[in-house]
Amino acid sequence: MAAAESENRPVAEPQRGGTGVILIVERQAKRARTMQRALQKQGHRCVVTRTTEEAFFCLATETVPLVIIGSEAVGRSGKKLLDVLQGSLRPVAKLVLGPRDCPAHTVTALAKGADDVASLDLPEAELLARVAALLRRNAETTALRKRIGDLTIDLGMRRVWLGLREISLTAKEFQLLLYLIQHVNEVVTSEMLARDVWREPNRVTPLQSVIYVHLSNLRRKLKQNEAMDPIRTIRGVGYQLADSLFLLPQG
User: Fold this and answer.
1) Could you tell me the domains of the chain?
2) How far apart are CA 129 and CA 140, in angstroms?
3) What is the pLDDT of residues 68-107, one digit of tens each?
């Protein structure tokens, strides 16, 4: 997975333990090793790659909360790497390194989705501080996402994906889906929805038709194929979102 030096020795080996690895995309082996050692002293697991192709492989096989991208990568195919990370469903923090006092590089990196930009020769203490801040921010962002199989809901951005397809929901449909996710595999009644989503507990009967329409629209948007019923109607009782439905292969 890690890139090989000229004598075919690995630049970096992922260490065991932890919940993810910091990916360093840097062509210069000496600079990469310096960053790797500094981060490993703080208990971080690291993988070093020399090319964006190797970086894509790491992203596909590892949980990567943070990517550090060297200036050469950003100036070339690294722009594609930033584009891919920007569209990723899994939050990945991006620290881009570049020449000191180069506004054009900073502007380009930020425009491509970098979360932070720093000098290539930044001191070890500054590197560790920036990494800690980005990981902390990433953890906060991750906490705002809920997943059920192929279904992903981002609470902060109020966006929803089914696989790689983003689903456009109204404000009420979003609230309704969030409530169903919070009660996944449970049967929720119209009374519960009126009380907790519409917040009009004294108007259960008039709201039943409104609730039904919103559930029907949400069900249609969540369908992966015609045979799928993402929101089950339990006649005479209520409705149920089953997690197993979103673990099925997409049709």
Assistant:
1) 22-143 (3.40.50.2300), 146-247 (1.10.10.10)
2) 17
3) 998 655 445 667 788 777 656 567 899 999 888 888 888 8
Report the alpha-carbon angle 107-109-114, nearest 5. Answer: 120
pTM for the whole thing? 0.56
Q: What is the mean pLDDT of the chain?
A: 80
To the nearest 10°, the Cα dihedral for 41, 46, 49, 53? Answer: -160
**Structure tokens belonging to residue 151:** 């279904």
CA separation for the pair 85, 116 (Å, rounded):
14
Q: Which of 84, 88, 87, 55 is nearest to 69 (CA)?
A: 55
SS3 label, residue 94: strand
Report the alpha-carbon distance of residue 129 to residue 125 in Å, rounded. 6
3-state secondary structure of 42: coil
The tokens for 29 are 């082996």
Which pLDDT does position 243 carry in this prediction? 74
Count Cβ atoms within 10 A of the Cβ of residue 56 and give its class: 0-12 exposed, 13-18 middle, 19 or more buried. middle
For the chain, the straight-line distance linking the first and the last C-alpha, in angstroms and rounded, comes to 32
Residue 81 vs residues 110, 236, 240: alpha-carbon distances, Å? 13, 51, 39
- Length of the chain equals 251
Summarize pLDDT for 99-137 with one digit per residue, the tens.
888 888 888 888 888 899 999 989 999 999 999 999 988
Instruction: Return the CA Rg of the chain.
Output: 23
